[in-house]
Every structure is written in C-alpha cells, then in structure tokens.
Amino acid sequence: MADAVEIEVDGRTVRLTNPGRVYFSARGETKLDLAHYYLAVSDGIVRALRDRPCMMHRFPTGVDGEKVHQKRLPKGAPDWVPTVRVRFPRYNRTADELCVASPADVIWAVQMSTVEFHPWNSRAADVESPDEWRIDLDPMPGVEFGTVRRVAAVAREVLDDLGAVGYPKTSGGKGLHVYVRIRPEHSFTEVRRAALAFGREVERRAPDLVTTAWWRKDRAPGTVFLDWNQNTRDHTIASAYSVRGTPEARVSAPVAWDEIDDVEPGDFTIATMPARYAELGDLHAGIDEDVFDLRVLLEWADRDDGVPDEPPEV
NCBIfam families of this UniProt entry (predicted)? Predict the structure, then answer.
C-alpha cells in the first residue's frame, strides 16, 4: 500500500499517512479501514460529537501499543479544524480541544491516530452547562451481560416513570450507556446530583443487581455499578459510534431498547457497523428532540440528601 492516501470529504482533502498500518490485530484492520468506517457512519459520529469539547484517545502504533490521551489539539493542525477553549481551574490552565463540526474533522483526527472520541456532555456555546445526562451501567468483574440487560430494563422503567426518553448504546466494553438530552440550564454539580438520585432509585428497585456505592470496596460482587460520577465536569466517555481500543475494533453502538435482550457487545465492530448503519440509520438521530427537565430529579436529590457514599467532586 502507498505511504499515504488522500481522502476527499466535505470539500476538504485529508492526507492519511501509513494507511496500511494494522491498528486492530484480531482481523488485521488498518488505519485506512478505520477511516472508511468513520466515513460510513459519518452523520452519526458527527451528531454525537458536534460542538462538544472532545478528548482524543490516540494509538500511534495501533491499539496493542501505547495509548495517548490528547486534550489539546496537536500543533500543526490545519486551520480549518475547529476547537473550543476549556479551562481547568484546579491547575489554572486552559486547553483548546477538538470540537467536531464535520466528517472532515473526524478523518483528520484519524490521521492523527485517533481511535476513540470522548466528548464532554456540554457544548461550545456554554461549556459549563451540560445538555446531556449520561447513565453508565458498569458491571463489576465477572458480571455477565445478561445482568446488565436486567439493570437496563429497570433503568428504562424509571425513565418511563419520569417521562424521560433515554437513548441506549453499548459501551464497546462490557456495559451499556443511556443518554438523555436535557436543557443546558444546570451546572455539572446539579446534573451529577440528579444522576445520583436516579441511580439510587434504580438501586432501590433492584437492590441485588445495582450499586451506586462510589468506593469499589463497598460494591457487592455480582452487581452493576450505576456510575453517576460520569456526569462530573471533564469526565468523558466514548461517544456513540466511537471505535474502542480493542483488537476486535469494537464500537460503542446505538441500539434500540427492544434489541437489548438479544445483542452482545461483541456484535458491533468496524466490520459489522457500516451495513447496520446503512440499514437502520442513526438510532440516536432524534435525541435533540426529546429534552428532559431535570427538576424532578433534583427534587429526588433533595429528598436523598444525607445518604452516604458520595465522594467529593474532582
């Protein structure tokens, strides 16, 4: 294969170097295969990332090698790649992070060896006001995906009771994520409090399956941790359609609620997702239309004040 190829996308020409480098060892998929995958799901990945500060997880030699967590846009980036400046008060520093607006921005990031995209749950217009509440179902070691499915059903029941519409996806690992669009009217602290209140309600309904205990030593074996702390400022998780850094090139794949009983996390890879996307389109396409008011969850949080296990915010 040539030392470089040029990819035309959105009126931009992105030069992809080392296109034949194997990034995913299980089936031998390459950097160029990764770029082709992201082009195949371009509308979906851009919708998931659009206008959000985004950390890039880069694997310069492939996913079996070193991973680089890249917050700042690398020097030498084209001037057309958009950024948003975010501040880190704890360190009194700022970073100009990638802020995807088009498929060309995604393919440029692939050129920079980005495999995973980890966006904030807020947007550039108001970085300090989240517009996305994230529910992370994270199984404890040894917990089968069947247990995650059962917890997802309880989470959906609580969402239905709230009148909230959740958009589920596989994590690309062993868990599930559910995203809920919210009005950008609350601080990260408030969204985090609301997420904990939701988690505690799920835990009350399925105490043998769910834990919200922050400290790992306090979590019962065989449970699923509902990780409410993923809503903390600058905590990010892989977006919908993001590839994960696994040898099989798994994808964090949007799924329909009625699919969850039948799918396995390994079903979704860069080899299988293009055909699925061509058939079903973006299952998260309607998320911006289903906006939930967090106030009822904040009332639940007030009700639960004083319940232990909430660590200091980091």
Answer: ligD_pol
